[in-house]
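Progress note, sequence design subtask.
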């Protein structure tokens, strides 16, 4: 696979551009197709220096598709740059011996991005009032874009910057934005924040507005739980399929959402886009939720279910047979013992001394056994004797889904700059984080 275009760009740190008005003093970050610099306005006072963020990328031939895409991004961003919740765009120009570089001048945000704030600095943990406050700011910013006829299509914490430390959010990166009310550019954006319609290439079109609302919903869930609910909203994704099979159980017992938050997200993640809340309705509910709704809960232990009737013996036999035929006895031994009710119970154990692996920790079989059991129960379409409620769905055990951080927060040196993944983007793959 060829390296991202940004790796082929020279390091221009120390260079003067824009006829000497801007001095590129520090490389801030590196994305799919651009490098971002902190630039000093050389006309500003040394006592009160003025800095900008300058995004540098390779220029495209006039009339080419790349040039059209770049011009599209600049035009869309400029159309909403006057809004208070949007990163301010100042100008664009080309320089170099053959005008081979394009520079986009933007406001410098010094507070970092929301992805860092949520998952690594964790500034929203146990701070429900702050969660509500910042999310209402994000809602306002996205609504301002919509009022101007612009749909972002990549709403996510990476693209939400802080003007200063945790204050004044700014929506950034309009490379995927559109003015179309119906789009045929599927899988446009980041998979974890993509609406089911956008991810479904069998459809004829989808609503970019609904995509923004879906991305907002996932972002709020990030703020509350510090995890993603699934990899992608598609039934091929085990987590999303589990949610679709039993939404309330998944939101409450897997994501640990309060009943109030559970109600909101069940509405936001409705299968039919027409049944989801509007942005105004979402804002109204968020304002009315209790502070405790913006924090994950710890599920209370549920009372054991009554003993299963003997008619479930065929199910027990099917489960036991499937496990024994699928799992090596060197990893796990399976036996049965009677319960007080007389119904056999499975007992699973493993030992490092009998494992075929000579190094490393023993393979933990219990989760695997549970997964196998779930698969059998799902195939038979009956309710297993598990600790789930009577929904017909065996409860899945999912570890927290934390996004991988692919960039290095400030302070950084050029040797520390990491290249961001562009997988999941359809066109103009530029997921650069402008400022840290």
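Output:
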């Amino acid at each position: 696979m060829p390296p991202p275009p940004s790796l082929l760009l020279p390091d221009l740190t120390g260079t003067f551009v824009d006829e000497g008005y801007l001095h590129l003093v520090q490389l801030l970050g590196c994305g799919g197709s651009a490098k971002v610099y902190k630039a000093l306005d050389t006309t500003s006072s040394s006592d009160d220096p003025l800095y900008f963020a300058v995004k540098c990328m390779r220029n495209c031939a006039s009339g080419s598709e790349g040039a059209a895409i770049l011009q599209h991004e600049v035009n869309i961003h400029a159309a909403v740059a006057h809004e208070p919740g949007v990163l301010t765009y100042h100008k664009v120009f080309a320089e170099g011996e053959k005008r081979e570089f394009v520079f986009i001048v933007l406001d410098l945000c010094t507070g970092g991005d929301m992805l860092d704030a949520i998952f690594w600095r964790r500034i929203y943990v146990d701070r429900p009032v702050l969660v509500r406050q910042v999310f209402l700011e994000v809602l306002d910013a996205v609504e301002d874009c919509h009022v101007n006829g612009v749909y972002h299509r990549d709403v996510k914490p990476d693209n939400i910057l802080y003007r200063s430390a945790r204050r004044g959010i700014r929506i950034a990166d309009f490379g995927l934005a559109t003015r179309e009310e119906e789009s045929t550019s599927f899988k446009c954006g980041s998979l974890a924040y993509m609406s089911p319609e956008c991810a479904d290439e069998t459809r004829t079109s989808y609503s970019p507005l609904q995509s923004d609302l879906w991305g907002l919903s996932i972002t709020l869930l990030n703020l509350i739980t510090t995890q993603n609910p699934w990899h992608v909203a598609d039934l091929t994704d085990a987590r999303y399929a589990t949610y679709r099979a039993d939404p309330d159980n998944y939101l409450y017992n897997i994501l640990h959402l309060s009943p109030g938050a559970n109600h909101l997200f069940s509405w936001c993640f409705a299968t039919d886009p027409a049944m989801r809340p509007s942005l105004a309705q979402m804002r109204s509910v968020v304002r009315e939720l209790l502070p405790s709704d913006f924090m994950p809960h710890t599920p209370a232990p549920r009372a054991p279910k009554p003993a299963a009737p003997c008619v479930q013996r065929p199910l027990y036999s099917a489960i036991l047979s499937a496990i024994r035929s699928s799992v090596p006895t060197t990893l796990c031994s399976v036996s049965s013992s009677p319960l007080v009710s007389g119904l056999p119970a499975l007992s699973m154990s493993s030992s490092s001394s009998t494992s075929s692996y000579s190094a490393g920790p023993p393979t933990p079989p219990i989760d695997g056994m549970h997964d196998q059991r779930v698969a059998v129960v799902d195939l038979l379409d009956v309710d297993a004797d598990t600790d789930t409620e009577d929904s017909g769905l065996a409860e899945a055990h999912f570890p927290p889904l934390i996004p991988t951080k692919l960039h290095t927060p400030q302070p950084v040196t050029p040797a520390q700059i990491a290249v961001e993944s562009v997988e999941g983007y359809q066109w103009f793959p530029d997921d650069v984080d402008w400022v840290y």
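Residues 114-294 form a domain with the Transferase(Phosphotransferase); domain 1 fold (CATH 1.10.510.10). Work on this subtask will continue into the next period as scheduled.
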